[in-house]
Structure formats: C-alpha cells, structure tokens
Write a structure and sequence with these properties.
alpha/beta, nine-stranded mixed beta sheet, 9 helices, 11 strands, 18% strand
Length: 315
C-alpha cells in the first residue's frame, strides 16, 4: 500500500500538465475556431473564459473603442449587425446589453461573453471584470484567436489578434496569438474539422510550454508568441522556429481609384535570407515566433540613440 501511494505521488510530481485559468479572446467574434479551442481546452482540464468582440474586427490592431456603452446597435459594422440581427453568428441580438453573456442556445452559462467594441476592449473585459469575478485573480494565460487567416510579416501591427496578445503581455501576463488559415471558417455549423485540429495542436503547444516551465510562468516577462498554422493543417504538421521578418504575405496599398480603400497583392517569392521568416514557414509548418512587448528597441538600438543624440540630451 505504501509503495502504491508513493508511486501515485511521484506520478503527480512528474506530470507535465496542470490546469490553467485561461482568458480566450479573438478579433472575429463567435467562430468555429474559438468554439473548437474552448472545447479542447476544457477537455484538457483548463478553466476557460471566452470574451470576444460582438462583430468581426479584423485590422483593428490595439484600438480601444466601444461602439456602444449601453446596447448593441448598428454602429461600427452596420451591414454585419443588420444582416445578422446582432452579434456575429447569433451570439447576442441587437438591443442586448453592449457587454454580456452569449444568449445563443448552447453557449449560455457564463463561459461565453461578448463586448460591442474592439478586440482589445473584449480582452480588457476578460482581464478586469470576468477573471477577477471568477478566479479572484488574473488568468495564468491569455490566448487570442485562432484567427481566420494567418498573421505574418509587417501586417502583425495591424492585427486585432496580435493586439490582444500584446495588450495582455503588456500587463505582464503570458500571451499567445494564434492564427489559422481561412479554410477554418464555418458560419453554418461552427464545427469546421480543421478548427478542431488547430485547437488540438494549440493544446499540445501549451502542454509543451508547461512541461518546461514547471510551476513558473509559461513565458518570460516581456515576451509573447505569434503562432501561425498552415492552410490545410494536419494533426501531424511539423513545428518550426520562425521570425517576424521582412517577408510579407500581402503587399498592402491604398486603392488609387474608387472604390477607395485597401488593395493588395501577393509578393514575390521569398529570398534565401528570408528562409526563417514566418511568412515562408507557415506554408508547410506551424510557425512559432517570439514577439517583444510594445515598441521598445533592443539594447543595441538604445545605445545608438544615446550616442547619436548625446549632445542634444546633454542640454
């Protein structure tokens, strides 16, 4: 009996995984991807609060804007709200409170929440209101996504998915931005098979970080992760280190004629020097990139500035 007890205790000590309190947000609202990730995280034993924008908010970056502070109205994304009668995929109807729990059948009970504002406002709601009410403290991890489309290259500064992770990391919390292919969209059944694969791989990533962290934080202070899954992702997809480099997946421009707005094209093939840029890696592998928090430069850049403007600084 004593030997059995010791074996059980040892098994608990060497187990690489332990339950985390997780805030899960995105910039797309209620999607197949966020539903699948919630399900897989719960199945792995984690506690999860979902808090997403009412409507799709791609490209809003780190904007901190509420579109209404009272009720859901046809304001920011008039076409989407009017077409769907409220939040994306029926999360909540027009006229419902601007902040609250999903009213959609199958998503009630408090785990699923929305904010009629930008992605970062939804993340803030999770961090400042929902997490303290549920756990009495900040979450152990903040996940943003999985986005419906990869976020690589310079476009990351425009991404609401990245904005969420950056905001949370700025609060000193471990944060990971997740982006999948546009082939994960399913607005009918919210059950795209690739969404499930992305979710399972995300849980695998978290377990790998936990195995190395032990009881400490999953990520170093000042570091967040940007993870991109390839189109047609398979459960056996390989993982690869990558950089947020100089290769961009889209050459974004402002349209030179009406209708005014965003235009763009796919860039030329990558060069040999861009072989580790995530824009190349994500096409066949799952790319994992480290992001600094905010815009502070590395020590070499700081020293350059000190020397270049030392006469000005001495005045």
């Amino acid at each position: 009996m004593k030997r059995l007890a010791m074996s059980a205790a040892l098994a608990l000590c060497i187990s690489p995984a332990f339950a985390l309190n997780i805030v899960l947000s995105n910039d797309d609202g209620l999607t197949s991807n966020v539903k699948a990730l919630y399900d897989e995280l719960k199945a792995a034993g984690h506690a999860v609060i979902v808090t997403v924008p009412c409507t799709g908010q791609s490209g809003r970056s780190a904007a901190i804007v509420m579109y209404s502070t009272t009720t859901i109205i046809a304001d920011n994304d008039k076409t989407q709200i009017e077409a769907e009668g409220g939040c994306h995929n029926g999360a909540a109807p027009t006229g419902a409170p601007a902040v609250g729990q999903f009213t959609k059948s199958g998503y009630t009970g408090g785990d699923f929440n929305y904010v009629h504002g930008t992605p970062v406002m939804a993340t803030m709601y999770g961090l400042d209101v929902l997490a303290p009410a549920r756990w009495g403290k900040a979450p152990d991890l903040v996940l943003s996504g999985p986005n419906e489309g990869q976020n690589v290259g310079k476009v990351v500064i425009n991404s609401g998915t990245i904005g969420n992770a950056q905001f949370a990391a700025g609060r000193g919390l471990p944060a990971i931005a997740l982006s999948a292919g546009t082939d994960t969209v399913d607005n009918a059944g919210l059950a795209n098979a690739r969404s499930k694969t992305v979710a399972q791989l995300t849980v695998k990533l978290i377990a790998a970080l936990q195995a190395k962290a032990g009881g400490s934080a999953l990520l170093p202070a000042g570091t967040a992760l940007n993870v991109n899954f390839p189109d047609g992702v398979a459960a056996t997809a390989p993982w690869a280190f990558s950089r947020i480099g100089t290769y961009d997946t889209y050459a974004l421009k402002f349209s030179s004629a009406a209708p005014w707005g965003l235009s763009g094209s796919l860039p030329a093939a990558a060069t040999a020097e861009q072989a580790e840029d995530e824009a190349v890696v994500y096409k066949s592998k799952i790319s994992v990139s480290a992001m600094q928090v905010g815009y502070d430069h590395r020590p070499a850049g700081q020293q350059w500035l000190r020397l270049r403007l030392r006469d000005l600084f001495a005045q």
